Amino acid sequence: MGWLVTILVGAVCGFLAGNIMGSKDKGLLMNIILGIVGGALGNFVFGLIGISFHGLIGNIIGGVIGTCLLIGIGRALMKK
Asked: Could you tell me the residue ranges of all domains in the chain?
């Protein structure tokens, strides 16, 4: 059940972050991958400054912020 929730939260985070960042739709699989990796990045970055997210909504908030960071980093690297 944990993997299913992770995939669903990743899909939601990827979708929301893509809309916030104005990305063109890359599909469900890319949203899931970006959301999961972005969630890990968000939890890591916020953990460094002493902030932790709990619960489903907290994980979605951290995941969306991390995914936005990931999209921004990807765009910056692609411009060079």
From this structure: 2-79
Give how far the C-alpha of residue 34 lies from the chain's centroid of Cα atoms, to the nearest Å: 6
CB 66 within 8 A of CB 40: yes
Closest CA to 62 of 46, 74, 77, 78: 46
| Cβ neighbours, 10 Å, residue 48 | 8
Could you tell me the two tokens for 8?
Answer: 């669903």
**Global pTM?**
0.86
> Residue 68: pLDDT band by 50, 70, 90 thresholds?
very high
Residue 29 amino acid letter: L
Residues contacting 18, CB < 8 A, separation 6+: 25, 26, 31, 34, 67, 71
**How far apart are alpha carbons 55 and 77 in whole angstroms?**
33
